[in-house]
Design brief:
By secondary structure, the protein is α+β, with helices and mostly antiparallel strands. The chain is built from 2 helices and 10 strands, in the order E-E-H-E-E-E-E-E-E-E-E-H. The strands form 3 sheets. A 4-stranded mixed beta sheet has the order 5-10-8-7, with no helix packed on it. Strands 1-2-3 form a 3-stranded antiparallel beta sheet. The longest helix is centred in the last third of the chain and has 27 residues.
Length: 183
């Protein structure tokens, strides 16, 4: 039979361990009110060794994984880094945050560099077996440069280009025709 105990029905080896949320082992002992609740819930049982009312409550490390995705930007003379949205943390209890940083996570010049995950020493990290071996590439790509149009837009230059193409085509046809007449 299951017995529901309140925090006055047992004692824990350390007063600060009442919450028992961090990794570790905690000695727990029933109080008189706790023993009375166990007896009341089991009236047909004989409790001959009621002096042994202690046990150990153990919290083991949970598994957590941190991964990071690549990021690429076009060159604009500004410093760029892998966005927070590219980092994925799984296995962590809701409301807790692991302590980590991304190393070498800033680039301005064209090229690629490897970004790694570095774990901090925060208290929350001590409650997890953290896998953070993933790396990502931070890339700055060259920008496509278009010729300056002096503010008049690109359309006049496209139009002129088409005129030159058609002119060349008609010149080629006309020249081919003349070459055929001379034979």
């Amino acid at each position: 039979m299951q017995v529901t105990l309140s925090n006055t029905d047992y004692t824990v080896d350390a007063q600060s361990a009442k919450n028992m949320v961090n990794v570790g082992s905690y000695a727990i002992k029933l109080t008189k009110s706790g023993i009375d609740k166990v007896k009341a819930a089991n009236p047909k049982m004989s409790f001959t060794d009621i002096a042994n009312t202690s046990g150990t409550y153990t919290i083991n490390k949970a598994d957590a994984v941190i991964t990071v995705d690549d990021a690429a930007f076009n060159y604009d003379a500004q410093s760029h880094s892998i966005p927070v949205g590219n980092v994925h943390v799984t296995g962590v209890v809701s409301g807790e945050a692991l302590d980590y940083t991304l190393t070498a996570n800033s680039r301005t010049d064209i090229g690629t560099q490897i970004v790694t995950i570095s774990l901090g020493e925060g208290t929350v990290n001590n409650n997890y077996s953290i896998t953070a071996t993933d790396t990502a590439e931070l890339t700055i790509n060259p920008t496509l440069l278009l010729p300056s149009t002096g503010g008049i837009g690109l359309l006049p230059f496209v139009f002129l280009g088409m005129i030159f193409i058609f002119s060349g085509f008609f010149y080629f046809i006309h020249r081919k025709k003349k070459a055929g007449e001379q034979r």
